[in-house]
Design brief:
The structure is a homodimer. By secondary structure, chain A is an alpha/beta fold. Chain A has 3 domains: 164 residues, Rossmann fold (3-Layer(aba) Sandwich); 164 residues, Dihydrodipicolinate Reductase, domain 2 (2-Layer Sandwich); 83 residues, ACT domain (Alpha-Beta Plaits, 2-Layer Sandwich), CATH 3.30.70.260. In chain A, the strands form 2 sheets. In chain A, strands 7, 8, 9, 10, 11, 12, 13, 14, 15, 16, 17 and 18 form a 12-stranded mixed β-sheet that branches. In chain A, strands 3-2-1-4-5-6 form a 6-stranded parallel β-sheet, sandwiched between helices. In chain A, strand 11 and strand 12 form a beta hairpin. In chain A, helix 4 runs parallel beside helix 9, helix 6 packs across helix 7 and helix 12 crosses helix 13. Chains A and B meet through helix 5, strand 12 and helix 11 of A and helix 5, strand 12 and helix 11 of B. Strand 12 of chain A pairs antiparallel with strand 12 of chain B.
Chain lengths: 429, 429
């Protein structure tokens, strides 16, 4: 009758999920059919925020994924191993999977989904991207008839929090990061967030769903926000932009044979729907035909929102399993096996923002223009913005240009005697 | 093998849906299993934007809903009758339904879903609210474990377009309406839009899904935007608000026994996520526990977006029917039978904005304050904003107050000799 869960992990997300599943009043009545049968933890002796019946807690995670009584394995332990091995073992034992593990799915998705299709089980991952925001299920189901052109997201709350504070307070990256760490909005080791790697995992997952192919994670270009300065945020504002860490997956070529999948700080026009997404919030903009633009906005992390996503996946599985007998629902299962071809970043066509410090003024703008012209880089605006000590500061925004051509022009500009340095280089949406 | 569609209606949405279903390249491969078997129209001789094989077009709509070959009836004809009768007949013949008909569902939903449950068929209605924006399916599935506290939407593109233009241009309602009609953004008879009735239908549907009960449409309070003036838009802006036509469904009482379901122009704080939804766009904000706030944003109307929603419903049905044998998926079917209790508008507790024209100034603010005080209305701000001819203009914003008490205070204020008129009365979010 009931569906038995084996939950791996009882950290923030695990405890949030247990709490939600135990507190059923006023929620969907189908929750009554779910039994928290086993919860795997590292130590039985730690104090827990949730109460569980005797015998539910266990340190034997291998036993959970092999237990014939378990119907669904809920992997909320995070990390790469043993999460990957436990998921694969659970699948081989015929368990359906619900996971919040973006890192494991982005790296081992191909292996995991191939195994799941062979075993005839589902792997649900709403919580892996955008916390509580429904985006995986809408991409799989509600937008399934569209030809998707682009998915553009603010999918990392830590960096959006830092950039929002830099913007509103005029502060430096390092000061805000230190404060965010103190307040618990950033990890002690902030690498995965501030270097764009977490966002890279998430856009790889979204790209796979939106474009119906697998993604080699190593093809995803990731550039973080460490080099974003308050100076650039201020100039961007004057030019009508805010700077956001965007994760982008987009059809690159007109024949749709290549994708561009990348994470980088980006100048976003102030009127763009993503420009007003502030603080720890996340948003994912999906563009396609015939839908046009739709955007999903909400809390990108946190115990409650993530538990909402994990538990909704569980409930959807319970509802699906109750009524289906023959094979996997083709919209909920992973139907693709080929890999998407991802163009190298040098092939990207985009606008650029660049800031130059120059030794003297006379003729410098002309020299810059000549170098850019040599590589077919057309300029939208060139502004001499002021001085930093002895050096003049010049800000350039280009028209669309192939990134490789722009980099070649910059290399030549670097050799100009008048150029002191190029402190900033950012893409423009 | 294939799933056969009987489509009722070939207007904007019908033609958009046919076009999408015929143009499969680059879309989900499951679309190949769908056959456009019959399309019911009023006249065979009208020129059509889509090409259909001989024998597909018919004027005999009754025959479509009775045809044993038809698996899914797609009702995109709109209007109340014969849409209602055809849907019911299709259900009684065991057809699944996809409909974009908010008016019919808001009025006859109880009858239609009772019949559907008896017949063991699905009624899908993603296109009925928010055009192409996925909101029905997320409410049914991705947010299903949440206790929903409130659903607040900008769900009528015409009125949002008019209010946005009044805001940006400082124009009058009647001028912008006339221009919107000329441009095709408003109907020749704009009643359903500008009087809030269309939004009322939609919030009734959203409330039913969010709170798991049926809604008597006549309990939904609807107030339109005809009385919104450019003067109030300008004052609202000075006070930090924009005026939007909001459709709101909210738990009213702490014991959750009563809902408030209503449509009215509302002062929305400029920092609120709904404040920046402009033009013909729609957005629906869902608040619940543990999710917090999530918002869905996109095109609220148009052939393409609506066709996306209709076709995705069809594809979801095809995917579900392929793999299910035993009964209806409890998250996709309508599981409730009771009616939600909706509190009368007098019981609403909200902030108010009111604008008064007074004959002279001396002591008027004191008299207003006394009248308000008599009924327990506490004021957040009182500003004498200027003069209109001989009359002084006073704008008041209250703290939260029971609407009935506020109305009583206003009735007493009306009797004051110093009060000329109360040209504006708006609720504040």
């Amino acid at each position: 009758m009931g569906v038995k869960l084996g939950i791996l992990g009882l950290g923030t997300v695990g405890a949030g999920t247990v709490k939600l599943l135990q507190d059923r009043t006023g929620r969907h009545p189908l929750l009554q059919e779910i039994e928290i049968y086993r919860v795997g933890v590292r130590s039985l002796n730690r104090p827990r925020a949730v109460e569980l019946s005797a015998g539910v807690l266990t340190t034997d995670l291998e036993a959970i994924v092999s237990d014939p009584e378990v119907d669904i394995v809920v992997e909320v332990m995070g990390g790469l191993e043993p999460a990957r091995s436990l998921i694969l073992k659970a699948i081989s034992n015929g368990k359906h999977i619900v996971t919040a593990n973006k890192a494991a799915i982005a790296r081992f998705g191909a292996e995991i989904f191939t195994a799941a299709n062979q075993a005839g089980v589902y792997v649900m991952l709403e919580a892996a991207v955008g916390g509580g925001i429904p985006v995986i299920q809408p991409l799989k189901q509600s937008l399934s008839v569209n030809r998707i052109h682009a998915v553009t997201g603010i999918v990392n709350g830590t960096t959006n929090y830092i950039l929002t504070r830099m913007q509103t307070e005029g502060s430096n990256f390092s000061d805000v990061l230190a404060d965010a760490q103190r307040l618990g909005y950033a990890e002690a080791d902030p690498t995965a967030d501030v270097d764009g790697l977490d966002a890279g995992d998430k856009i790889a997952i979204l790209a796979s769903l939106a474009f119906g192919g697998r993604i080699h994670l190593e093809d995803v270009y990731c550039e973080g926000i460490r080099q974003v300065s308050k100076t650039d945020i201020a100039y961007a504002e004057k030019l009508g932009f805010v700077i956001k860490l965007l994760a982008v997956a987009k059809r690159q070529t007109s024949d749709n044979s290549q994708l561009s999948v990348r994470v980088h700080p980006t100048l976003v026009p102030q009127t763009h729907p993503l420009a007003s997404i502030n603080g720890v919030y996340n948003a994912i903009l999906v563009e396609g035909e015939p839908i046009g633009q739709v955007m999903f906005f909400g809390p990108g992390a946190g115990a409650g929102p993530t538990a909402s996503a994990v538990s909704s996946d569980i409930l959807n599985l319970v509802a699906t399993l109750k009524t289906s007998t023959a094979g996997l629902n083709p919209l909920l299962a992973c139907g693709h096996h080929h890999y998407c071809q991802i163009a190298p970043i040098a092939e990207l066509v985009t606008r650029f923002y660049a800031r130059f410090l120059t030794k003297d003024q006379s003729g410098v703008i002309g020299k810059l223009g000549t170098c850019f012209g040599n590589y077919g880089v057309s300029l939208e605006s060139v502004v001499q913005t002021g001085f930093q000590g002895e050096l003049a500061e010049i800000v350039v925004v280009t028209h669309d240009v192939r990134e490789g051509d722009f980099r070649q022009a910059l290399a030549e500009i670097h050799t100009l005697e008048a150029i002191d340095s190029i402190p900033s280089l950012l893409r423009v949406l």
